[in-house]
Design goal:
Number of strands: 18
Number of domains: 4
Largest sheet: 6 strands, mixed
Helix content: 40-55%
CATH superfamily of the largest domain: PAS domain
CATH topology of the largest domain: Beta-Lactamase
Structural class: alpha+beta
CATH class of the largest domain: Alpha Beta
Strand content: 15-25%
Radius of gyration: 35 Å
Distance between the termini: 110 Å
Length: 570
């Protein structure tokens, strides 16, 4: 009996070892296939995230833990596209379709919209229906392998529980056989799950042995090569590609094996009887338990359309730059040609005022006023157009600029307006930034000037602040004026778009458009927050440059104070 028991125990030990080795092989294979993915993957049920990889979370400016703790992923979808996403999810959930491919806008953590191409598939997750989403090409790092590690630990724990007692050993063996069966079922379910995941990825995945022979290929690679999976597995690159391509693949594989590190590159591949394609390829080593490289994994994404789009964008940018130059030159020439006749109109109009105002009838005085006022407004418009054109045609190189001095100069230029309005201008300490001091002066002067112009019944109060938001400097000019309706938040930055008539508030409608052009030339953005009757806060950002990070807060003091300034009109 003792020999029989010993044989049974030895058989159980050998079975456990075989199962453990099988699990470890499976774990290594699928860790390389899923974690190496360059796509973002999300699995959700009723919009509640069940699984998300690093790439999916990174696209939304979050960590994976932040996503999986969410009750719903819908807040990461643009409001205008929520209905679209819901419709596809519901169709998959009702079984009306097996998969869906569509584009939608997601939202990053900073609420900036991002476009995604989404391949959505109905799957089973832990034996319950779920939805899998795969967005663009990023590296996939899966965490589900932890389940296999836990199963492996459970098996080792069961083996350690054996005792020398015959009856107890028999009972424990029965329990372990039952538990082992459950573990094998879990292993098969996990294998099916990962196999489904790899097969549904919209990219090519393959493994090659050290002789360069394909031992695995998914449908994505077969579709890319316009072959069947069976026509790939068992063959070498020499049998699938031209000699030039095959030789390059062989050299790349040898480099991965020799150095034991991954290769990430973009290559052009000429396929038989098909147009050339641009591929984003990742080749990485697959190691055994001893750490030796035993195979090469290849993940391929077709980025031909992306490369074509990049070329189109380059051509479009060049054409747009040329058009902008011509437009600026045209505005400069027209403004210059209008200046001389306008100066004559102004001079004769002023001469009419001096000689004949009050000597003719009231209607004549009114007509003369129209001439002088119209000429003055036209001169202001020409000056604004020239300033708008000079943003690019006469821009100076970006240099370290003390914003405190810029605001000081802006306040000095507006000293008369501040005094007449009885305004209070408060400025906190501001940083040193990289930019064109003259153009930044124009931005602050326009924003402060608008706060003085569009004021309410109370004396104007203007507060200027600035701080480092990490990747950008963020400035604000707040006032207690009449405010801006929310529907006009974008319109006010468009050239010649005015919310008021010249009789109500003088101006040409170019001030904020000029601010927008200057800020965008510096690589920043400008926006407004406002409520009618409660004032406005104009924000704009400038990129943080490495050259300006040092002593960035060590600029000169704000206007007329060390820590804070209050400039009040008499």
């Amino acid at each position: 009996i003792a020999r029989h028991v010993g044989a049974v125990l030895e058989n159980a030990r050998l079975h456990d070892a075989a199962l453990s080795a099988q699990k470890m092989r499976f774990e290594r294979q699928f860790r390389n296939l899923v974690v190496g993915s360059i796509q973002g993957i999300l699995i959700q049920r009723e919009f509640r995230p069940l699984f998300v990889n690093d790439s999916w979370a990174l696209y939304h400016g979050l960590g994976p833990g932040e996503v999986t703790r969410m009750e719903s992923v819908l807040p990461l979808v643009h409001p205008d596209d929520v209905a679209l996403v819901r419709e596809h999810v519901l169709r998959l959930a009702r079984g009306e379709a097996e998969s869906a491919m569509f584009e939608y806008r997601g939202l990053r953590a900073d609420r900036m919209p991002v476009w995604f191409e989404n391949v959505m598939t109905a799957i089973e997750w832990n034996e319950l229906p779920a939805i899998q989403s795969v967005i663009i090409d990023v590296t996939v790092r899966k965490e589900a392998e932890l389940a296999l590690k836990r199963a492996h630990g459970e098996l080792e724990q069961r083996v350690a529980q054996r005792t020398a007692d015959l009856s107890a050993t028999n009972l424990k063996l029965q329990d372990e056989i039952h538990e082992r069966t459950l573990a094998e079922n879990n292993l098969r379910r996990s294998e099916t799950l990962y196999q489904s995941l790899v097969e549904t990825l919209p990219l090519g995945v393959a493994r090659k042995d050290l002789e360069g022979r394909y031992t695995f290929a998914n449908e994505g690679l077969a579709k890319l090569l316009k072959l069947a999976v069976g026509d790939i597995v068992g063959r070498t690159d020499e049998q699938l590609f031209s000699r030039v391509v095959a030789d390059k693949h062989r050299r790349d594989d040898q480099t991965v094996v020799e150095f034991g590190s991954a290769m990430d590159f973009i290559e052009r591949v000429d396929l038989p009887e098909a147009p050339a394609r641009y591929l984003h390829t990742i080749r990485s080593p697959i190691r055994d338990t001893n750490g030796d490289v035993v195979a090469v994994q290849v993940i391929v994404s077709d980025i031909t359309q992306l490369k074509q789009t990049e070329q189109e964008l380059i051509l479009y940018s060049e054409e747009l730059e040329r058009s902008n130059r011509e437009l600026s030159q045209f505005a400069s020439v027209v403004s210059h040609d209008l200046t001389a006749p306008l100066r004559a109109i102004t001079s004769y109009g002023q001469l009419l005022v001096r000689r004949y105002q009050g000597k003719l009838d009231d209607e004549a005085d009114e007509f003369i006023g129209y001439i002088v006022g119209g000429a003055s407004r036209m001169q202001t418009l020409i000056n604004d157009l020239q300033a708008y054109a000079r943003v690019t045609t006469r821009a100076k190189p970006s240099l370290p600029t003390d914003v405190n001095q810029v605001v000081r100069d802006a306040i000095a230029n507006l000293e008369t307006e501040i005094s007449e309005a009885g305004a209070e201008v408060i400025c906190e300490p501001l940083p040193i930034v990289h930019g064109d001091a003259t153009q930044l002066l124009q931005v602050f002067q326009n924003l402060i000037g608008n706060a003085l112009k569009y004021r309410g019944e109370q004396p104007p109060r203007v507060q200027i602040t600035g701080f480092n938001a990490g990747h950008e400097w963020r400035f604000s000019v707040a006032d207690n004026g009449i405010g801006v309706p929310e529907k006009d938040f974008e319109r006010i930055f468009v050239i010649h778009q005015r919310l008021h008539t010249p009789d109500e508030y003088p101006g040409t409608g170019l001030g904020l458009a000029l601010c927008k052009r200057i800020v965008e030339r510096h690589g920043g953005r400008i926006w407004v927050e406002s409520k009618v009757g409660q004032g406005s806060v104009f924000h704009f950002s400038l990129p943080v440059r490495t050259k300006c990070k040092r002593d960035a807060q060590a600029g000169s003091p704000p206007p007329q104070a060390v820590s804070e300034t209050s400039v009040t009109g008499a």
